[in-house]
Amino acid sequence: xxxxxxxxxxxxxxxxxxxxxxxxFYNLINEGKIPAFRCGKVRGVWVWEEEVxxxxxxxxxxxxxxxxxxxxRSPGGVR
Length: 79
Hints:
Layout (H helix, E strand, L loop, with lengths): L7 E3 H8 L3 H9 L15 E3 H9 L22
Antiparallel strand pairs: 1-2
Helix pairs in contact: 1-2
């Protein structure tokens, strides 16, 4: 385990932290916004927790309806 990047997260753990759908999570990986890797013969991809937190820190996190979290259009937005 790379202790400098925190723990490894599978797709389910990562999309729960990001509060997004599985398909959106994979889109983020395919667009290069979150670096991912495969480990051994296990299916699926893994990401480092630090990379997920870094992406959240950019302020580019969107909710399920595609609205930026905290915006006027976001159902949970505070404005």
